[in-house]
Amino acid sequence: MLLLRAAIVAVVLAGAAILIYPPNSAAQTIPYNWYTGGTSAGGGCTGSGYTYCISPDAACTGQYEYYLNHTFLSLGPGTDGLGKPAWVCKYIANTVTITGYIHAFCPSGYVQDIFAANGCVKGPVPKTQGNSCTTAGNPITVCTGNKYQAAVDFRSAGTNVLEFSRHYNSQSQYAGAIGISWQHNWERRLVIISSSSIRVIRPDGQELSYSKVAGNWLTWDKDVTLKLAASGSDYTLTEIDGTVETYDSAGKLQSIDFANGYTQTLTYTSGQLTEVEDNQDRTLEFTYDGNGNLDTMTDPDGNDYTYTYTDAYPSTQTTVKLLTNVTYPAASTPYPEIEYHYEDTDFPTYLTGITDELGERYATWAYDSTTGQTTSSEHAGGANATTVTYNTDGTKTVTYPLGEQIK
């Protein structure tokens, strides 16, 4: 029997491991954000149960000192039992060898990097943008209050799909080819933070964090199946279905190779994407205005799609733009233009409505004046009205059109 100084959160015997993750409600501030189970307060640690420490060394020491009879073996970077980056703490308690895993729990606005001094680096929390977690209404990302909107401007027929789509996230400040808070599907990219930390940006704006551990790129998010790897000076990102995306050393997408042999290749001119070509001789072509924003997209049939912008912050000298109109080829619809509205004076880049190709406003959104979280969505005439209330205890209450509430 193991002799403990106090109750331990998780214990295993003979070569098994301690897997410690923090409760969802935990919210520690730097520097006490290295967490582990079964340590005692003091010596650079604070709290009980899931104990927070100032360093992996303090967390490891606190962990093995829980036992009356112990021998320290080693501490170093590695991976936990789920294949996620962690500091690995090994020790003997009585005659039993135990392995503990130490992670960083990061405050809001930070993501884990086990090589950073405090285990966290500044950046968005993974998967808070895009079509992630639970959504309500048209659609509101309930877990964060982000307003997400997607639009497909062109999609080819058949199995091998060539597409141009756009994705809006109210909580994103990314200002790319189609203006602030918007990105198109070919703007997926890698953000090289350091030699041991990369942020992967997906087509819909989701952000996933990877750390380099023992030569391998790993993410601690158990839901992520994308495999990041170095390939010479380039990087590859492999999906579970065998699709391989190749990025250059700066993180720009170069090509996509599908398991069935279908390929798509990107061409850049002066740093701007000018063409996407597949191995079926189909191309998407792009031109830009004087501000560097996308002006036209030309589909494989030679049809032009035009993008119009306004100043995102007209009272300042910034050149950041905001997408207001998309004009489709004349033959595609009777009234081939969509208009986007941004009417919130507190958050001038937040999408508040859409007027469709028929000239009718069919969607409206509202936001909390303090936090900017999306509070409601509805269609024309109040149809499908949905509200989200962000409660002080961190829970959310969704009220659906017929009055049903889910917390």
Report how far the terminal alpha carbons are from each other: 44 Å
What helical percentage do the residues reach? under 10%
Task: Characterize the overall form.
Answer: globular
Strand content: over 45%
Q: On the 0-100 scale, what is the average pLDDT?
A: 83
Quickly give the structural class: mainly beta
Number of helices: 1
What are the low-pLDDT stretches, counting only 5+ consecutive residues below 50? 1-30
What integer value in Å does the Rg equal?
Answer: 25 Å
Number of strands: 37
Sketch the major β-sheet: 17 strands, antiparallel
What does it look like?
This protein is mainly beta and 407 residues long. 2% of the residues lie in helices and 46% in strands. β5 and β6 form a beta hairpin.
List keywords for this structure.
single chain; mainly beta; 2% helix; globular
Summarize the structure.
With 407 residues, this protein is mainly beta. Helices cover 2% and strands 46% of the residues.
Provide the fold topology:
Elements (H helix, E strand, L loop, with lengths): L16 E2 L15 E4 L7 E2 L3 E4 L2 H9 L5 E10 L5 E9 L2 E9 L5 E3 L7 E3 L12 E2 L3 E2 L4 E10 L7 E7 L5 E2 L2 E2 L1 E3 L4 E6 L2 E5 L5 E7 L2 E3 L8 E5 L2 E5 L5 E4 L5 E5 L5 E7 L2 E7 L4 E6 L5 E5 L5 E8 L9 E7 L9 E5 L11 E3 L5 E7 L6 E6 L6 E5 L5 E4 L5 E2 L1
Parallel strand pairs: 1-7
Antiparallel strand pairs: 2-4, 2-7, 3-4, 5-6, 6-7, 8-9, 10-11, 11-12, 12-13, 13-16, 14-15, 17-18, 18-19, 19-20, 21-22, 22-23, 23-24, 24-25, 25-26, 26-27, 27-28, 28-29, 29-30, 30-31, 31-32, 32-33, 33-34, 34-35, 35-36, 36-37
